[in-house]
Backbone:
């Protein structure tokens, strides 16, 4: 456990390190030959402006883009509305700007390649974890969070494509978004990392939400720090 007197100091240090990493990343990209910078920029779809949404739904293409997918693409619009409600418009726009900066260093439009790149970068991984964990905290009172999610997303899908979002669809979305977080909770190092980033007890909170949301029958398979 981090001593109370050191918590603020460590958090300030963490922010400074992150600022330096961002600065060095921008400097590195700017130092590339012009043709490489142009090539990276040319792969970005200029019509895309919802970068935060891309980050999130990049975990779900099998649910709406694959052949025989279980739901229409209007789920994307529904999730976008949920994100705006979950974060507020101001924070949504701020996170969207940060996601835009991240994607400038990820030229590939392929979702799997995108997530491989994110996992390979501590800075990008930290940002992606922050987004997913903040979304997951909206389900801390799971029954209420689930009801809110299904109402917001389901209303959009019903209006745009006459699709009825059901329990099975919710479970598929929840598993797609957060299933990997459960696997990562098996690592004590990851538990310590998340507790440091979001406060002591975060890993235990995440575990409780995921056990219920993923319908895990034997939660004892993951021992969480207290």
Residues:
């Amino acid at each position: 456990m981090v001593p109370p007197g050191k918590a603020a100091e460590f958090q300030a240090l963490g922010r400074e390190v992150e600022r330096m990493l961002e600065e060095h990343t921008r400097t590195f990209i700017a130092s590339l030959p012009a043709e490489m910078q142009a090539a990276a920029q040319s792969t970005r779809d200029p019509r895309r402006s919802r970068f935060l949404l891309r980050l999130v739904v990049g975990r779900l293409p099998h649910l709406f883009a694959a052949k025989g997918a279980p739901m229409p693409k209007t789920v994307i619009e529904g999730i976008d509305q949920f994100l705006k409600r979950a974060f507020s418009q101001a924070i949504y726009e701020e996170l969207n700007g940060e996601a835009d900066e991240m994607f400038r260093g990820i030229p590939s439009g392929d979702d799997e390649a995108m997530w491989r790149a994110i996992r390979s970068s501590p800075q990008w991984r930290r940002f992606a974890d922050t987004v997913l964990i903040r979304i997951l905290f909206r389900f801390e009172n799971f029954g209420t969070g689930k009801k809110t999610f299904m109402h917001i997303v389901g209303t959009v899908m019903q209006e745009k494509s006459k699709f009825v979002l059901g329990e099975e669809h919710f479970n598929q979305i929840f598993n797609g978004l957060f299933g990997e977080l459960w696997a990562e909770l098996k690592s004590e190092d990851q538990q310590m990392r998340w507790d440091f980033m979001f406060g002591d007890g975060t890993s235990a909170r995440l575990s409780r939400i995921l056990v219920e949301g993923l319908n895990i029958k034997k939660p004892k398979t993951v021992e969480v720090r207290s």
Observations:
- The chain is about 70% helix and 0% strand.
- The chain has a mean pLDDT of 83.
- The CA atoms of residues 61 and 124 lie 20 Å apart.
